[in-house]
């Protein structure tokens, strides 16, 4: 049946929500000739999220609100601006949009906040401009913007290979409960990879690990089985650059978390807890321990970037 879209609907602002990610497993392989490392990673999308509002405008403009907004560029280097330009070019139109970013994800925290903004912008503009691009086409554009952007679109729990952009959904039964220990001072992702290369130079070649056991624990939905299998090859590099994170990790497990790891390139530390109740207790204890600047609880997995309908706002 033919549906008639009112002319005014096209110019209505669109709101999008996009999740933070944690790497439950991050295996970093050799440095490739293109400068990226070969990765095997298991991502999970968390309930900590960005809110993006896209409104038609004369030219491309950006505003940023929320925690640490001053650390986020509002020029063309913002990943959301790059996403808008890439999509506009693909659709042969002007990137005439105002992007308002409400940061719920810490900046440079190893939680892919910038990637979430890029994914949210793509999903929102797809709706605003009625691009009719397929999910696969959006994912290809996302991969050109950054290694984590395809996962921010995908959401859920996924195995990532290549630079992390080749994704396969994996089964994660039930809900996992996380506590995040956030540091005010971020860590630069390229600098952490550089530190890993430095630590590895002269040492032994990277050990090849396999996430098979972790994937089984996820499918079984058993946080106790999953906890000892959480793994991040970037953690030694992040700890070398920020030694105080050792104290943060210890404080989380002392407080009753099943396990704690550095998230991606850090400095956020994420703690897996046995239940929602335990996560609240761990968060309360960590808040008082003076080992981080903020503490949040979150659950996973959640959906990737999606348009938020009026009733959800
Ligand atoms: P990842 O885990 O994907 O490596 P991250 O979570 O550690 O990334 P981001 O918050 O994505 O880090 O930001 C890293 C840097 O990118 C920031 O320091 C900032 O200068 C720049 N940046 C560009 N666009 C954005 C954006 N929309 N939000 C946050 N930072 C951005």
TrEMBL record:
Enzyme Commission code: 2.7.1.148
InterPro entries in alphabetical order: GHMP_kinase_C_dom (IPR013750), GHMP_kinase_C_sf (IPR036554), GHMP_kinase_N_dom (IPR006204), IspE (IPR004424), Ribosomal_Su5_D2-typ_SF (IPR020568), Ribsml_uS5_D2-typ_fold_subgr (IPR014721)
A GO biological-process term: terpenoid biosynthetic process
Alphabetical UniProt keywords: ATP-binding, Isoprene biosynthesis, Kinase, Nucleotide-binding, Transferase
Gene Ontology MF terms: 4-(cytidine 5'-diphospho)-2-C-methyl-D-erythritol kinase activity; ATP binding
Protein origin, superkingdom: Bacteria
Residue numbers annotated as active site: 21, 148
Pfam families, alphabetized: GHMP_kinases_C (PF08544), GHMP_kinases_N (PF00288)
Domain GHMP kinase C-terminal, chain residue ranges per copy: 215-289
Domain GHMP kinase N-terminal as annotated: residue spans: 78-156
Pathway terms, separated by semicolons: Isoprenoid biosynthesis; isopentenyl diphosphate biosynthesis via DXP pathway; isopentenyl diphosphate from 1-deoxy-D-xylulose 5-phosphate: step 3/6
Binding site for ATP: 106-116
Catalytic activity: 4-CDP-2-C-methyl-D-erythritol + ATP = 4-CDP-2-C-methyl-D-erythritol 2-phosphate + ADP + H(+)
Stated family: Belongs to the GHMP kinase family. IspE subfamily.
Function description: Catalyzes the phosphorylation of the position 2 hydroxy group of 4-diphosphocytidyl-2C-methyl-D-erythritol.
Record protein name field: 4-diphosphocytidyl-2-C-methyl-D-erythritol kinase
Organism taxonomic ancestry: Bacteria, Bacillati, Actinomycetota, Actinomycetes, Mycobacteriales
Gene behind the chain: ispE
